């Protein structure tokens, strides 16, 4: 995870009154604009973005990693580096300070291995898909720019785009009237939603950890089965001659070795099936859990930005206004010069405007929070997708492995030789050797 969006050094939106947007910008939807009417399927259908590693190239001094980013929606394929994602992320935070902006994975450290690079590729893919499907982000020009601009310097293009317009508050027709759409008990609802989502996050975090362990066990099981089969094959291929006292059993040992030699094929197939199941569950279960966790983390970060950002600034503005009023009363008592009184009055009027704007921003922030909470709930049915993928993977995996085990069983008959050298069916272990 990258650093939380709620840090104190997060982008500070300019203090300004909302202005009338240009044609083509956000319009007031019919009905109550606070309410989202989206399904999970509609969200997922907005776009499917692939992020793949491009084979390493050498820079002037250090190797750098490049990604091929392809968008189904824009029918585009562009190349991006990690720093391009960083600038895009900063632009989103600047333009949408009151929305869930997913965190980026950490920057590459010295000595980063393939495992780190692959984990970061997966995280970047989750990030860009969450952004591409987010209602306000998906309709913004900076997303199209990032996913389709194939020129030489996408970072400057993104920065220029961010400088041209202010943040969402300044460009939304509803900003000045956001309070009118909020329920009366919005603060109570916010506190309840925050607690609920915190609990959901904790539970999904544990589910993801267990799913990762199951995938790891499947991959370890695959490696163990492969080595087990190779050792059986090595045993069957052993050419060490039998000592004379064991020559009576030479035919028995010879047939055993012949049977053992051929078992590596089945065990290699079992290993392959186990590895396939682990890989499938990593993609269909662990990655979807990580996607949902990234979304929930971005909601938690947004809540922190709301409290440490707009609410804190509002309190500071009120405190400053209070100090100015006291100064004015003190100046009136001391009968200061008219010019200094006029300057103080002008500063007080300016501060009143600042407070009014901060109040509007505070209500707009709550308005956006309410919508983002709804968006989290739209994603909740992803749980059934994850469970379905897990159950199907387990059924399919056990079914395929069971078939290989059943095919293997007839080949074991020659390993059980009767008293006159004839094959005998295997019997269950007895006399303390039974499995418990």
Concise summary:
The protein is mainly alpha-helical.
What would the average pLDDT be, to the nearest integer? 81
- Assign an overall shape: elongated
How many alpha or pi helices? 13
What gyration radius follows from the Cα positions, in whole Å? 32 Å
The residue fraction in helices comes out at: 55-70%
Strand content: 5-15%
Task: Please tally the β strands and state the result.
Answer: 3
Biased composition (Low complexity): 1-10
GO molecular function, one term: phosphatidylinositol binding
Main location: membrane
Protein name: Sorting nexin 8
Task: Please give a structural write-up.
One of its GO terms (molecular function) is phosphatidylinositol binding. Residues 1-10 have a biased composition (Low complexity). Its main location: membrane. Residues 45-153 form the PX domain. By secondary structure, the chain is mainly α. Helix content is 63%, strand content 6%. Strands 1-2-3 form a three-stranded antiparallel β-sheet. A hairpin with a 4-residue loop joins strand 1 and strand 2 (63-71). Helix 5 packs antiparallel against helix 6 (154-164), helix 9 packs across helix 12 (338-379) and helix 11 (263-334) packs antiparallel against helix 13 (382-408). The radius of gyration is 32 Å and the shape is elongated.
Please supply descriptive tags for the structure shown above.
3 strands, 63% helix, 3-stranded antiparallel sheet, mainly alpha, disordered N terminus, single chain, 436 residues
